[in-house]
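Following the same procedure, the fold was encoded as tokens, giving this record:
***
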Amino acid sequence: MRLSMVSAKRDQISAAQNIPSKFLETIMLELKHAGIVKSTRGAGGGYALARPAADISVADVIRAVDGPLANVHDTSLAQLAYTGPAESLREVWMAVRTSLRSVLESVSLAELASGSLPERVRTLAEQYEADVRTYQ
């Protein structure tokens, strides 16, 4: 069965992901408002993806729940300004946001669920693990 066709009750998701039910309810409401999930009432009800899992990126989910990727001072990067020696810091934050976006937008929920991540993401994860071993 395709991931987008699966319906699950809040308590099932809560138990499977070890998330408190009330907290999950808030998350699901945010995902519903973003058009990522839909809910159905009744005995056979629950939550299901509102569109195919392959069409939903990890970035879509994070933005729905947390807002902009790599938020800095709760302001847009266009409004962010530093002076003196820190003047270039705005460009650093722009690069961070672009890097996050390039990874999170390239991974769909279908890929995440199947474990078939894009090669670039796997390579970056391997690089991270090598860096951690180097600096320990």
